[in-house]
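Field notebook, page 115. I keep forgetting to write these up properly, so this time I am using the form the group agreed on. The chain and the ligand, 2-acetamido-2-deoxy-beta-D-glucopyranose, are recorded exactly as supplied. Prediction of the bound pose follows.
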Amino acid sequence: MISKIFVLLFAIVLAVIGQTTKPICNIRCGTQYVPVCVKQDDGIVREFNNACLLALYNCLNRQSLRPNATCVKDIVREAVQDALRKSQRLPSDSSFQGRAIRDFVDALRRLIRSL
Ligand SMILES: *[C@@H]1O[C@H](CO)[C@@H](O)[C@H](O)[C@H]1NC(C)=O
């Protein structure tokens, strides 16, 4: 009887320790910025610098989050590409306004290359 109680207590202690200690995760991640994003249930989009860091987060927190949201970087890229497509339909002229638009388009091109 007493030994059964001890076994039960031991099992409870193990279960509590298992829940409170962080799992050991042998995952080494680089710092490359290739973001992946997960939309939480509260609507907040959580960004991880790369897929490896998401895997590490999942391991440490015993979760299985999968990328299921668009990252800000990709939203900006899409918006810039859209602006560039539209700019190609603008009439080209040598007026000051035309030059200002071309300068702006060049700035967008540089931005999109840096993303
Ligand atoms: C994205 O994944 C998270 C975690 O797995 C989930 O809670 C959330 O509902 C998902 N969101 C969408 C938009 O699928």
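OBSERVATIONS:
- Strands lie at 36-39, 45-48.
- The chain is about 55% helix and 5% strand.
FOLLOW-UP: compare against the apo run.
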